[in-house]
Amino acid sequence: MYASSDPRSRLAADADNTAAGRPVAPAQYYDFADETAAVDEGDARVWYARAQNFVALYAKARPGAVLVRADQPDEYVLLLPDPGCGAVVEWNGARHEIEGLSIVFVPAGDSTVALPQGGTAIRLFTTRAADLVARCAELCPEFEADGNVPALAPWPEPPEGPAVRAYPLDVAPEEGRFGRIFRCTTFMVNYLYPRSGPRDRSQLSPHKHDRFQQASLCLEGRYVHHIRWPWDTDAATWRDDHHTVCGAPSLAVIPARALHTSEAVGAGTNMLVDIFCPPRADFSNQPGWVLNADDYPAPDTE
Question: How far is CA 43 from the centre of its chain?
Fold first, then answer.
């Protein structure tokens, strides 16, 4: 359910009757302000989070920190949310200087991310990264699999071939477009526009996705994630509603089939980043919504 002014009101309803009867997974919440949950990796403090198809690494880096990734099996995402904290990404023998407030897609293989000014760096890897999945099993033992999410299938490769591709996130709003959406072969990231003050409670947007999870990364402010689980025929699978308050920085993983909406409640700036793995077809089908669609084609559905 969306307000008529919400661009998502144009989307077709997401319904998959084959999912009926499968247990709905629990939600997962990760607090990246909890120092007891972080680990030291070189010159960075790193928090791990797990969703069905991906692993998120949230790093607070000291100046000069280098984040190393070896033998990465597929493309990954680097988010640099701090405007004054850029990065130097090295891949395939090439060096790329990236400004802060950018999203970067890094191809498979060996790569490094140097952070001369330090700051925040968020990396998103699919569960094909077996070593990171194993690390999550140690650090995130509360994770439960979501049986309503299909196995990960990557989207087509860019016509120009693999390359480090960086995009500035300082993109002005446009009437009829929802957020700032970028996609690659493995992820779709919607860098939503900041909201000043609490959300109007008469304009919430409860909705559900039957075949994929939504992960909401809170970068500023505070949100209440309202989640309602369906009542299927087996009452043993029923869950109580959640109205979970999450501050910045944090990640909420919302399971497939659960009705949900996120309500900004902070007095100042509130900001979310929505993450999907793989990319969403319905968002991709909306003309102009995906800002780098020319670089990353959608699958041929004909």
Answer: 24
Dihedral, CA atoms, 73, 273, 155, 89, nearest 10 degrees?
-40
Asked if residue 136 is part of any domain, the answer here is yes
Q: What is the pTM of this model?
A: 0.94
Kindly state whether residue 291 falls inside one of the protein's structural domains: no
**Domain span holding position 24:** 7-284
Q: How many helices (H) and strands (E) does the chain have?
A: 2, 21
Q: Is residue 233 part of a domain?
A: yes
Sign of CA dihedral 198, 201, 202, 208: positive
Q: For residues 66-88, give the mean pLDDT.
A: 98
Residue 146 CB contacts under 8 Å (≥ 6 apart), including other chains: 25, 52, 213, 255, 256
In a domain, 26, yes or no: yes
28: left (phi over 0), alpha (psi -120 to 50) or beta: beta
CATH number of the domain bearing residue 180:
2.60.120.10
C-alpha 205: how far from chain center:
19
Q: What is the pLDDT of residues 240-262, one digit of tens each?
A: 999 999 999 999 999 999 999 99
